[in-house]
Amino acid sequence: xxxxxxxYLTGKEAHYLYQAVYSGHISGNGxxxxxxxxxxxxxxxxxxxxxxxxxxxxxxxxxxxxNIEPGDEVIVPSYTFVSTALAxxxxxxxxxxxDSRADHPGMDEDKIEQLITPKTKAIVPVHYAxxxxxxxxxxxxxxxxxxxxxxDAAQAxxxxxxxxxxxxxxxxxxxxxxxxxxxxxxxxxxxxxxxIQCGEGGLLAINDERFFKRAEILWxxxxxRAEFFRGEVNKYGWVDTGSSFLPSELNASFLYAQLxxxxxxxxxxxxxxxxxxxxxxxxxxxxxxSLPHLPEYAANNGHMFYLVCNTPDEQTRLIxxxxxxxxxxxxxxxxxxxxxxxxxxxxxxxxxxxxRYSDCLLRLPLFYELADLQLIINSITSLIKNK
Length: 387
Ligand SMILES: *Cc1c(COP(=O)(O)O)cnc(C)c1O
What we know:
36% of the residues lie in helices and 13% in strands. The chain has two domains: 13-260, Aspartate Aminotransferase, domain 2; 263-385, Aspartate Aminotransferase, domain 1, CATH 3.90.1150. The chain is an alpha/beta fold. It has twelve helices and twelve strands. The mean pLDDT is 97. The relative contact order is 0.17. The two termini are 23 Å apart. The strands form three sheets. Strands 1-9-8-5-4-2-3 form a seven-stranded mixed beta sheet, with helices on both faces. The protein has a three-stranded antiparallel beta sheet with strand order 10-11-12. Pyridoxal-5'-phosphate (PLP) binds next to α3 and α4.
């Protein structure tokens, strides 16, 4: 069976883990945590980052930092992972779901403004498959209405938004901005299904300086321990709300080995993505399926390769036919506004595109050691042509 995903090991993980174990400091915020955070700050210019135990945790920190309260509204795409909405629901927010674009599963930027009310506190764009949302448009809307933007960049490490509009609120034409650094806050995931992984892990990027100090306090269980460690105060205590959001050095050391090999991992994934794209393009040209669309402002980080079938029936049949050929292709999100948990609370209208991606999108195997790419392309080609 060709699996859908196989977590890649660079070879250095066990070595760094060993060093962390024998260094005597295995709790959080040690040497490897600092190395991982510094990597983000040096490589992409993030102003301040905090390693977390997951992207879900980083999103929960955002909900706390923004003081989300019962009655507040948060705009989230319906076609996303549960955590994007759940982190805000825990603080009592009402989720206002946005539909996806017709040409991409990301949220339709042109439908955001009509969802804003005086209660709207935040917009949470998700860079699906590592492909940027139109951040110029989203930040323009957010600035105009004085609301916050939290980027769910769980899938978007090492991906970019390039300013493609002369009047962009984000700066000059052609400037390339790393995803996760554009909103007030950004969240990354290092879950084993992501490009760079440590089993479970995440990172919060704090792009708005107003949140620097409080983010560190929430991270350290509501205490000012981080300041104490730096020698800025001579004792530490309980100063705010918070939780235990920091991972142990065991996760951080594993993660650092992956980050060190980022270029190699990214190159390999992008090559696989390109090969899928050019291998399946002829099917798209005949109108039999749709392939991923990259807007001019979006880069590709090789996170995911998906195709969209013309009907739900074709998706179901293709997944099961591939399974018979030992290829594990999978569907993705089920629209959150239709979920068992939220559908009774949902007050908005139909979200046609989100439902279409739920019913028609399927993801193909994509991992570093994938060897049978041509075989997969050939299987899909013959299954679709002979349907
Ligand atoms: C993976 C993912 C998450 C959750 O990440 P965890 O690190 O598992 O908490 C959230 N949002 C999106 C879009 C994801 O892909």
